[in-house]
Amino acid sequence: MKNCIKLLVFSFIVLVSSCASTTSDTSSYVNKKLFSQLKFGETTKSQVKEILGEPSYIDNNPDGRSVFMYDTSSVAISGLVFTKEGVLKKIADFEKN
After folding, report:
1. pTM, rounded to two decimals
2. If DSSP states are collapsed to H, E and C, what string results for 53-93?
3. 78, 30 contact by CB (below 8 A)
């Protein structure tokens, strides 16, 4: 009976682990090469969205500035900072925890 239970548990573990995905979905990552098309002091928020697509997160500050966050890899994210006028000011890269 104990061997039967062990076999059942082992079979369940094998079945569950075979369903796990081992590949990462890179389709949601923004290609950093596209950033070369962005011009500080010129590129607007709408132009950034046209080039990079919708950001994964948007932070709108009370003073009118905003930050678009884009996933660039499984371990990195880029923050694009915009002025009150909606023009690209700077880009900051961060490691994901």
Report:
1. 0.72
2. CCCCEEEECCCCCEEEEEECCCCEEEEEEECCCCEEEEEEE
3. yes
